[in-house]
Amino acid sequence: MIENLEISPDLTQVPEIFTHHIGTWQGEYIKTDKNGHFSRSFFGSFTIAIAGNQYRQVNKYKYTDGSSLQLDFEGHFEDRILNLYSSSYSDFSAIAWDAGQDLVCFRATKTQDNALITFMETMTLLNENHRVRSTQAFKDGVFDGISFIEEIRVS
User: Fold this and answer.
1) How distant, in Å, are the alpha carbons of 27, 80, 88, 90, 125 from that of 51?
2) Fold of 2-153
3) Domain boundaries, the chain
4) What is the pTM of this model?
């Protein structure tokens, strides 16, 4: 359980920028299609913890129809790069790295609806409690749209 994970990153393995994202963040995800037209939106809560070189993240989504979804991720830092997996998706894999100037880059793949989905995300820390993320999505190698979210740290 993420709430009980001791927060004590190993700074020889974990780039400092990742420690600035520890906690719970909330915001509204906005998705567009490949032409930039609004597709849908939903609210998200994202909780991140790091202990040693181990990483945990829980994403909780709430949709306008009243439904919700929780996704669980775990990983580890090796050579200062985060290698991420998910118990929620059997074939999910991702890497994330410090891109400098308060920016984290993230690349992930998973299979969904018999298609290979690739995500390229940037996460920009504006200040200690405010960040913006934008994600390009590709479906079987074809551009499929952009998502973005402005988040506030709530704990």
Assistant:
1) 25, 14, 21, 24, 21
2) Lipocalin (2.40.128)
3) 2-153
4) 0.90
